[in-house]
Each structure stands twice: as structure tokens, then as C-alpha cells.
Amino acid sequence: MSQKEGYSPNFKRPAEIMRMRRKRARSDAGVFSSPSGQGSTSSPGQSDSSPACLRPFSPGPLLTAQNRSGGGIKRRNPFANIENTFSPKKKIHIYNDEIDKETEKEGEDDMITKRQCGGLAFSAMLTEVEQTEQKHVSSKKSLTFSEDDSLFDEEEEDVKAPLLKSPQSIAPASIAPPTCTQYPTDWSLKTRVLFTSPLSLSWAEHPKSQEEAQGLSQHCRAQFSSLPHSIQDPRSCSELRCAFQQSLVYWQHPSLPWLSLFPRINAERSFTGKSTPWAQDTELQKSLMNEWSVSLSSLYSLLKTRLCPYFYLCSYQFTVLFRAAGLGESGGITALISPTTRGLREAMKAEGIEFSLPLVDERRKSKEQQNPTEEEQNAKCSELKESDGCKAAEKTESCGYDDDDDSDDDEDFSWLQEMGVQDKIKKPDSISITLRKEGHTVSLDHKPESVVCVEGSHTFTLINFLINCRSLVATAGSQAGLPPTLLAPVAFRGATMHTLKARSVNVKSQVGLTFQNISSLEITGPILPSSLHAITTLLRPAQKGNFSATLYTHAPTAVMNTHTNKQQCAGGSVDLCGCGLHPASIQQLQQPSSLGKTALSHINMNNYSYTWKN
User: Fold this and answer.
1) For residue 483, how many C-alpha atoms fall within 13 Å in the half-sphere facing its CB?
2) Domain that holds residue 242
3) 553-581: per-residue pLDDT in tens?
4) pTM value?
5) Exposure of 554 by Cβ count < 10 A (0-12 exposed, 13-18 middle, 19+ buried)?
């Protein structure tokens, strides 16, 4: 509010304050002194130069000769302001009382004295202030807030400074900021995860024998213990340590203690120099493949009955992810293969396996939306299905190849006709055109765009194809004769129980000019999506909602996050409660992934809210 003249001048500098005080004292001595003594009464402790009817410099009620105390004039506060001394209610009450008293006591003689002392100006100023204060209070009361949520704290009369609250100061306390309680679903395999937190993570290592045994038992029986929202002492919480051991378990086939069977792509170094007795023994290779075929068939049976949510097949050339119906909003079993080659796709096509290339189809759809003329050409081609050219084009599209139609080939040479040299230039023959088309398909090999999606009953045909495929096992090199690695979150026939390796280290990190102690937890091994979610769920209460994670992804599996479902699943129609995972993990894996062909690289939780990078 603006400063009112005569009450609290807007003094800014001490030198100016003292200069104005001396000037006011001289003016009061010259103007209000009366030789005859009329209109002035003296009282002990009061200067004769001060007017009889004026208020002292400090804001307060009007002082007259009758109500002045004998103890001397109160020293004024140069920074006092009537606006910040009393509440609006009290100010209006004071002004009304003063006006009423002056109206009753004032007579004709008093009116003359008032005119001499400037009383009329004072009364007019009081009326103006009263109207201003009433408008100010009414404007504050006319806001959209209710009386209970008033912006003012209307205090009693003995309170000197009321508090003023703005909507900005009320909003954070009454409206909580939105929080993200989950990160996107990530179907890629992780080779290493590094967790860091300002609180100690040493509780996650060196479990007691009883805690480790109980954690393994809970995993086999699919039992999950409930934890509080915040844990004060994680080291003394036995339920937390048991649940952490439970989240580290995964199942693998085959299992060779002296070999690390994950990852398998570009892992020749890890096999070099190791003992491989099956490399030159064909009978041993057949025995390994027979056991592997039984394990793969067992996994698919569990997947079909929704007793296993998903599993991975990791060969030396590609990785296959099988997902049960209901995961990723798919209405049936789906399989993703990445990376693939033209030879593998042609072999699958020869076995009658229908598949699609999701990323290639997505790129083709975006091109069709940008070029509406291509849609018209496709419509014309559909009307001429009986022609051999359109049949070949449809056959290529069904396999998911990103090739152009024969009409596009003719358009490529239309510029020759425009120049008038079409007779002088020899057009390429059909063999050259075929080779050019095959060049497009070969260019997809070993790239993320070569990911193949198989759905429905064709996944069963894919299982038989993988069991009988000779190129599935390397015939030369350090991995020769070794079957692919099978990884699953639940037990299956021929599988061996393994646990991820966890190691806690206290490190110092530079923050600005100082170093802060930060605890880290390193987890290595084939980290499955459900294991990652279970570990982050446990770190949430143990670290009081503050931790971060750096994720190292197995590169060929990053494209597994591609949205591929064609058979939409009705919400909640597929029951996966018996698949052996925590209900929270099942709920997350049922959501479609929004990462595309990328994977998560960083996860950060701050105040129980997630942020991430991919």
C-alpha cells in the first residue's frame, strides 16, 4: 500500500531523516505557538512546540491535552507505518472511535481551534484512509478463496503485525507436486547396474546364512513380504535383506561353472583358452543339444500356461525374447528376434513362419503419410492383383522388406523420357532390378531395423524351427558346439539356479568444491527386467526415496522395447498371478514400452519420484 502523508514519510537515508526532523521542529515552533495561550495547554514532560490536537509521529490514537501521559512524549519510530502496525479491523476501529469522540466533544470553539491546528485536513485524511482500508479489505475478501482459507490471519487487537499470505506461498503446502512412481518398461538385458545413494548401501551385501536361505525359499515358493514405506535401519531389517536375496535369483541352462554363458554375441574372448571338450566330440554335442531341446520345450509349455512370464534365448548370432500373453498389452504369445539376417528370414519364411519387421513397417507408414500418392499407387496395385508384378510386391511386403513397387522402378527412369534420350540409354534388365531390391534387404542385416516379431501360434513353429536349425550353434570358433543360453525368472526343466553378484563400495564424489561420501552398489550378471524392478522397489524404502542407477545394456537387446503388438489385449483379461513375479512387477511389464528401439541408461529417484534417461 502507498505511504500516507503526515503519518509515516518514506525516509530512506539516516541523514535525510535527521534533516527532516530539524525542519519539522522549526516549522512547528513557528506555526503553532500562540502568544495569547489559546488552544494550547502545557503538561509535564511535553514540549510547548508540539500542537495540542495532532497525533505523535508514531502511529497510534489521537493525543490531546486530556489523555497525554505525564511521562514525556514517546519517541517516534521513523520507519513505522500505520499500514504494518495494526490489522485492518483494528485500524478501522481506531478511526471510527476517534471520529465519534471528536464529533461529540467538538463545539464551535473547538471547531475554530481545529481549523487553526489543521484538524479539518486531519479528519479528511482519516476519512480517506478509512475508505481506502475498507476497499482494501473488501477486495481481499472478494477473492475466490473461502473464508476458512482466507489470505489473512486476522489476529486479536493485542497482536501488532498481521501475517499476509500469498497464493504462491499457499500452493506448495496445499497442492503436492506430481510425482512419477514408475519408470518405463525396459525389456533389454542388462550386464551391469551401478546404484549410488547418499545413504549407506552396505546392508545389501554379506547376508546371513539364514537370510540367504529364506530368500531362496521365498523365490521358489513365489512368496513376497510387505515392507514399510520407510525403513530406519536397513541393516537390522531381516525382511529387507531376505527380499533382496530373492530379487537376485535367476535360472539358466546350460550351466558350466568355468564358462560365462552371457553374453554370447561377440564374446569370443571370454571363451578363448577355456576348456571345451565338446568342440571335437560330436556325441557330446548331440547330448548337449538334446538336453537343451528339452529345456526349451519346457520353457515354452510354462509360457503357454502363463506359469512363466518371459524367457530369453541367447545364441552366438542373435537373441530371442519370448513373452507370455498379456505382457506388453499383447493378446497372445509374442517373440522378438534381434538382430537378424536375410538368410535367417528366408529360412523362417520357408518353414511357414509369418513375421513382421516392426521398425520397417513403421518407417513405411510414415512415408505413406507424407506421400499420399503412394497410397493411390497401392490402391491401383490391389485392383490388379492378378498381375505377377503386384503379386511379387505383396509377397515382399508380407515378409516385411522395405522395397519399392515395380511402378517406382519405372518412375526412376521417367527423367530419361523427359530429356528425350530414352532410346539411347539401355534400361537395366529384371535381374539387375532384383539384385537392387535384394540389396535393400541385405542392408538391414545386423541392424536394429532387422528386428523380427512373431506372434500367436507361429511362435510354436518358431520353437520347432530353433530346435532343428543347424545354424543356431556355431560350427567353428571358441563357441563351437555349445547350445544357446536360456535365461528365465522362474525354474524350468534342466535349469540351474544362479544369483546376481552384488558388491557395495563407499566412494567420495566431488560436489562443487567439497567431497561427499556416496555409497555405491554394483550388481553384475544377466539382469532381467523383473529383477531390475524388484531391486529398485526394495531400494525405494531402504534409501528413503533417494538413489540413482547407471544401467549398462546388452546392445543387441535394446531394440526389444519396440512396440509390436498387433493383437490388442483387453485390459485385465489375462491372469498372470501364477507366473512367479511380484504383482507390482507384473503390473509394470503389462504396460507397453515407450522407449522404442532404445533402452534406459540412467534412473534417478529423488523424493520418491522417478526420472530417467535413455
Assistant:
1) 27
2) 190-248+500-562+597-613
3) 999 999 999 987 555 554 446 889 899 99
4) 0.64
5) buried
